[in-house]
Fold:
Amino acid sequence: MNLIHPIQTARTVVRAADAGDARRLLRYRVENREHLAPWEPLRESSYYTLEHCVQALAEACEAMRLDRAYPFLALDHAGEQVLACFTFANVVRGAFQACHLGYSVAASRQGQGLMHEVLDAALPWAFRQLDMHRVMANYMPRNERSGRLLERLGFEREGYAKRYLQIAGTWEDHVLTAKIRGAD
Ligand SMILES: CC(C)(COP(=O)(O)OP(=O)(O)OC[C@H]1O[C@@H](n2cnc3c(N)ncnc32)[C@H](O)[C@@H]1OP(=O)(O)O)[C@@H](O)C(=O)NCCC(=O)NCCS
Structure:
């Protein structure tokens, strides 16, 4: 059972991913395969199967139960189509109270301010309900769209990490940014 309440935004319903989302998630993965490939790790062909989505959602529910990661979907108001995805991942408690944020929007919705709308609603949730002190988000220098999005959301640049993540098969440098609770 999903105990995280949905958040309504102007164009979406934002809620935690759950076991019933496999077909919706598969459609998002398949339709956005080429759009997302330059910005994500290499995917096996099995990634684009219903089985893989079922498994990923089971792991997502377990990760939430263990307070390790919180994967979300932003759906259209009918609750049918996935318009964007994001995850508060790598949750660390204790003195750190921090996590990493990863996100993507459907190719058909890019450039319309949708990711901003969704994350602008979700970040206060992460700071209040998840009790995060710091949300970190990192992007490749050539991903200018992502950099501008983070800046508009109030993330501040904290550093530059060489060969930080393996994206599309290559170890890529990343700009490190973070948003701190109550900083704006
Ligand atoms: C990065 C990504 C999530 C940005 O999503 P997006 O919805 O296009 O981003 P935004 O919400 O910031 O909107 C972007 C544009 O919409 C325009 N826009 C239109 N209406 C808007 C509105 N109401 N509010 C805000 N912006 C609006 C803005 O001018 C902005 O243009 P700009 O980026 O040229 O300045 C998306 O490009 C994506 O999924 N990329 C592939 C995956 C990826 O890179 N993930 C991140 C890895 S770090």
Remarks:
- The mean pLDDT is 97.
- Residues 73 and 85 are 5 Å apart (CA to CA).
- DSSP finds five helices and eight strands in the chain.
- The pocket of coenzyme A is lined by residues 36, 39, 103-105, 110-116, 139, 143, 145-146, 148-149 (CB under 6 Å).
